[in-house]
Amino acid sequence: MSDLDRNYATPLGRADGRVDAAAVDAGLRAYMLKIYNYMSIGLAITGLAALGVYMAAVTGDPSGAAAKLGNAYLTPFGYAMFVSPLKWVFILAPLVMVFVISFGINRLKPATAQMLFWAFSALMGLSLSSIFLVYTHTSIVRVFFITAASFGALSLFGYTTKRDMTGMGSFLFMGLIGVIIASLVNLFIASSALQFVVSVAGVLVFAGLTAWDTQRLKNDYIYGYASQGGEIAERAAITGALSLYLNFINLFTLLLQLLGQRE
């Protein structure tokens, strides 16, 4: 906290600076806790939505099934979700919602932004529900806990490290663009080798983004939101939760491709 002591020192001496620094430190902890709480609630909504859709989409009665996908018999709802063209609506809806929240956040009230974040989390759950058809449930749970442990360690590193990670941002962004382009190319060539490379590269990129985003959020509060507070800080907490949420989800899906056991 020595930097905070210098930044908030007053003409009366360092004692007042330490008081201000302590206040900022307490505010920072509350701010980051709010971000992690929002992110955790979003992940819980996503998981429940994904599991709920899967349970409603699959039946154990072949005679009442509308279709068969792999080893699973689908209900009419499951057919609409995973086979019919309607599936593209649920696949693309989260992407649209991300742009709505990201570009409209400054015009939204915090309560409205929260509701949009919860809606986005639910839509993400709908789009991820197909993993229960592809991977064994045991491996999904195992990879989730691996992701949670990795994410926690990376975020803790980003929060506590003294190293300035600002310069990594452009490098990680270029890596992310490369992963997206390679993923799109692989949609057409369907190369298992390229998919493996994309998954490994993606894990490295989102691991770096997790630490980088955590430090960015910390610095944004110290050098900006600590003196502003109110709705501005509340909206910033929601967008911060969204960025960490996306890092977690992408880490999870990429690790599932690498470590998950298929049905």
TrEMBL record:
The keyword Nucleotide-binding does not apply. The keyword Transmembrane helix applies. InterPro entries: Bax_inhibitor_1-related. It is found in: Membrane. One of its GO terms (cellular component) is plasma membrane. Keywords: Membrane, Transmembrane, Transmembrane helix. The chain crosses the membrane at residues 35-57, 77-103, 115-134, 140-159, 171-190, 196-215, 236-259. It comes from the Bacteria. It is a multi-pass membrane protein. Belongs to the BI1 family. This is ABC transporter permease. It comes from Nitrobacter winogradskyi (Nitrobacter agilis).
